[in-house]
Design goal:
- With 284 residues, this protein is an all-alpha fold.
- The protein has 13 helices and no strands.
- The protein has one domain.
Amino acid sequence: MESPRRYLGILGAFARNSLMRDMAFRADFLIECASSVSWALMNVGLYAIIFRHTRMIGHDTGWGRDEFFVFMATTWFVHAIVQALFMPNAEEFSELIRTGNLDFALLKPIDTQFLVSFRKVDWSALSNLLSAGLLLAISLRGLARREPNPLTFDPVTLFLYPFYVMCGVAILYSVMIALASTSIWLGRNQTLYDFWFYITNFSRYPMEIYQRGWGRPLGAFFTFIVPVLVVVNVPARLLAQPLVPRASWEWPLAGFTVVATTGSLAASRWVFQRALASYRSASS
């Protein structure tokens, strides 16, 4: 148990140092927080307008206004954690290679992937957690009062929701660190944001939109090959319960998500280690 405690202590030190750095420029920090909250409010306003013209997204999908807002809040939870913990470090990974500072990371008595993944924490990105929590509470309150079939909560669901949110975080982290690792082979990977946006954009919508026409192979690819569709869909579906009666494939999909999370972490670890083996230090 000593090693996990040690790594948690190091993560805490990284978080404290990042907070002190952010507080040194408080005006910039507050502006970034306000910008994140404003973006969240604009998204809620957009979909509030959409739901004035339609009862649900897609015919008989079950994703009405409150159900979809649970989905949106879950998206914010996952992406806020990823952007706070991993995005600033993935962005700087290519700079560590270009400047040779990766040499110093390799010399530290700590796992290199852990070090390059958690060195900085973007505290302003966590402001979206507050927006997500507020939207989730309002949406669940509406679902609990809906007629007919008011939503009821059981302890299993309340446990599984945060568990699958963390599974989604782990899957997106795996995609991000694998993309960042290519900087070792490419020299400088300036397209990280582009790839990240293109891939994760598929996770922002319910799976039902991919169940017709050419969307079927696309949905299958981003569910079973690059499993970004399960990132938000599984926890949001378990909590919001958009379909009554429940779909027969929900629990098998939840089981697959655990397998996909384990496989994604293992695959990204393999890519990182293979890329690191190809690294030529600045002194070589």
